[in-house]
């Protein structure tokens, strides 16, 4: 069984990558999603296990779908 924190880390990386791809600050994302900036920071650091509702709000603010935030990001080639 995969380590339970694994999916939290997957979401952390996906949210951070999507946010930066849109050129948003954590504060901008938080405002769009109706969250506190510190909450977004915790999600991106993998210290906060967000609910499905918050995942959906983040996805909408990031112009994506929740399922895309649950897919492990591919590592770049060496």
UniProtKB/TrEMBL annotation:
One GO location term (cellular component): cytosol
Source organism superkingdom: Bacteria
GO molecular function term, any single one: DNA-binding transcription factor activity
SMART domains (UniProt xref): HTH_XRE
Keyword check for Nucleus: no
Keywords of the record: DNA-binding
Annotated HTH cro/C1-type domain residues: 15-69
Protein name: Transcriptional regulator
Source organism: Bradyrhizobium jicamae
């Amino acid at each position: 069984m995969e380590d339970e924190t694994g999916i939290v880390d997957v979401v952390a990386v996906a949210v951070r990558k999507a946010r930066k791809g849109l050129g948003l600050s954590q504060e901008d994302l938080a405002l769009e999603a109706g969250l506190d900036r510190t909450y977004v920071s915790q999600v991106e650091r993998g210290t906060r296990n967000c609910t499905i509702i918050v995942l959906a709000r983040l996805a909408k603010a990031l112009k994506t779908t929740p399922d895309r935030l649950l897919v492990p990001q591919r590592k770049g080639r060496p």
